[in-house]
Amino acid sequence: MGLFDPTSSLWLRALALGAILLPGDALAIGPVRSWVTRGDQSLLLAEQTPVFFGASGSAPLTVVVDPGVTYQTMEGFGAAMTDASSIILNQRMSSSARDALMTDLFSPVDGIGLSYLRLPMGASDFSTSHYTYHDLPVGQSDVTLGSFSIAADEVDRIPLLQQAEALNPGLQLMASPWSAPAWMKNNQSLYGGSLRSQYFGAYALYFKKFIEAYGAHGLEIDTLTVQNEPLHSNSSYPTMLMSTFQQSTFIGDHLGPMLAGSGIETGILAYDHNWDEWNYPLVVMNDPEADPFIVGAAFHGYAGVVENQSLLQGFRPDKGIYFTEISGGDFAPNFNNNLIWNFDNLIIGATRNWSKTVIMWNLALDEDHGPHLGGCSDCRGVVTVDSETGEVTREVEYYSLAHASKFVQPGAVRIDSTTFEGQLETVAFMNPDGSEVLIAMNPTQSTKSFVVERDGQVFTYSLARRSVTTLTWSPFEGLIVGDVNLDGVVDDLDIDELFASLGSAEGRFDVEGDGGLADEGDVDVLIEDVLGTRRGDANLDLRVDLIDLSLLAVNFQTFGPWAEGDFSGDGIVNLVDLSLLAANFGYVGQAVPEPVVAGWLVGLVVMGRRRAS
Question: pTM of the entire structure?
Answer without folding.
Answer: 0.78
